[in-house]
């Protein structure tokens, strides 16, 4: 799974796609933000700053205040790969976020998505 192009992709260009995906299924931007906050430790102000600064995925995850220790509980298949088996740390973090957005779009309850 060597797709380093995604590492350089601006997070701000993908964020609206997460929002669009979940809104089509009746979920909200606020819920997307909630899963990002949970996973990365960003809050509203720091997430907004990252979006305004147009940081790439690599920088977004490098500067994350605190990756959630329960992120390792995220399991399943995304883009044909089992997220728990992805060896590249950054790619796994990106796919964790993808998986959380998928679960949100599929109507899972927030408490399950956030592994509570």
Helix-strand layout with pairing:
Blueprint: H1 5-8, H2 11-24, H3 29-40, H4 44-52, H5 57-62, E1 77-78, E2 81-82, H6 89-105, H7 110-113
Antiparallel strand pairs: 1-2
Write a structural description:
This protein has 116 residues and is mainly α. It has a single domain, classed as uncharacterized protein sp1917 domain (Helicase, Ruva Protein, domain 3, Orthogonal Bundle), CATH 1.10.8.290. It contains 7 helices and 2 strands; from the N terminus they run αααααββαα. Strand 1 (77-78) and strand 2 (81-82) form a beta hairpin. The longest helix has 17 residues, at 89-105. It is globular and about 30 Å long.
Provide tags for this entry.
116 residues; two-stranded antiparallel ribbon; Helicase, Ruva Protein, domain 3
What would you say about this model in short?
It is built from 7 helices and 2 strands, in the order H-H-H-H-H-E-E-H-H. With 116 residues, it is mainly alpha-helical. It has one domain: Helicase, Ruva Protein, domain 3 (Orthogonal Bundle).
Oligomer: single chain
What's the total helix number?
7
Run of helices and strands: HHHHHEEHH
User: How is the CATH topology named?
Assistant: Helicase, Ruva Protein, domain 3
Radius of gyration (Å): 13 Å
First-residue to last-residue Cα separation: 30 Å
Low-confidence stretches: none
Query: Considering DSSP H and I runs of 4 or more, what fraction of the residues is helical?
Result: 55-70%
Provide the domain count.
1
Please state the structural category. mainly alpha
The CATH class is: Mainly Alpha
Going by CATH, what is the homologous superfamily? uncharacterized protein sp1917 domain
Shape: globular
Biggest sheet strand line-up: 1-2
Mean pLDDT: 95
Strand content: under 5%
Tell me the major beta sheet. Answer: 2 strands, antiparallel
By CATH, the architecture is named Orthogonal Bundle
Number of β-strand runs: 2
InterPro entries: SP1917_dom_sf, UCP033199
Protein name: DUF2200 domain-containing protein
